[in-house]
Structure formats: structure tokens, C-alpha cells
Amino acid sequence: MSLGLSGDSLGKILTQFPRILTYRVEDNLRLIAEYFKSLGVDVAIVLHKSPGNLGLSIEGHLKPVTKFFWERGFSVEEVRTKRIRPRYALVKELGVKKGLNRMLALSRCDFEKVLQMYRKNVLA
Fold it and tell me: What is the largest CA-CA distance in the chain?
């Protein structure tokens, strides 16, 4: 299965998520790639921007998160533009050292608490 990753993207994935080298293609990587494709998501972009997604459990994490947003009427594009991009911008701006996956998993209230903590540390 080709994901269309460039050499630079592959290098970034291996640098940020070296554990991928221990994953079996058939048991892990192919299944996650197929799941993202079934949502209409460009797998190469997802993996380039957030290689940690390769380590997520489909049944234990990805499907429940997908179900949560779909039950609330969000499309994949709305999740990307209304949740991921704004949080990514704030995390990057403040230099938060937690991974984006962790930041996305937080409720809005918990996300705001983390941001407040980092703002206090930056201003201190």
C-alpha cells in the first residue's frame, strides 16, 4: 500500500515516531491507513503532521473519537478546521511541549487549563 509519502515526510515520521519500526504492516499500519482512508482523509498528510496517529488503537481510540464527533454532527472537515487547526496554532504559538494528539484528546476546559499553565510559565 503506497501512502504517497515523500522522503522528507518519511524521515520526519521516523524521527518523531521511531516506534513505527517495531510495527507490523499488516497488523498495524495498513489497518490504520485504511481507517483514515475510509473517513476520506489524506493519510499522507495525517501521518506527516502527526505521526503518533500510527500508534493509536482503532477500536480503543479512533472509532470512539470519530463516533463522538459524528454524533454531534461534525464532518471530517469541520473537525479539522474547527478543532485541530485552532489548537495546533495555539500549541505552536505558546511552545507547548505536549504532542498535538494529547492536546486534541483534552476537553475544551482541560485544554484551556493547559494553555493557562503554559501562559503563566511563559510570563513568569
Answer: 49
What is the gyration radius of the CA atoms in the chain, in angstroms?
Answer: 16
Angle at alpha carbon of residue 33, lines to 86 and 81, rounded to 5°: 15
* DSSP string computed for 14-54: HHH-GGGGGS-IIIIIHHHHHHHHHTT--HHHHHHH-GGGG
Helix (H, G, I), strand (E, B) or coil at 9: helix
User: Which residue in 27, 42, 39 sits closest to 70, CA to CA?
Assistant: 39
pLDDT in tens, 36-91: 889 888 888 888 777 878 788 889 888 888 888 888 888 888 887 777 778 888 88
DSSP 88-111: HHHHHHHT--S-HHHHHHS-HHHH
Give pTM, 2 decimals.
0.63
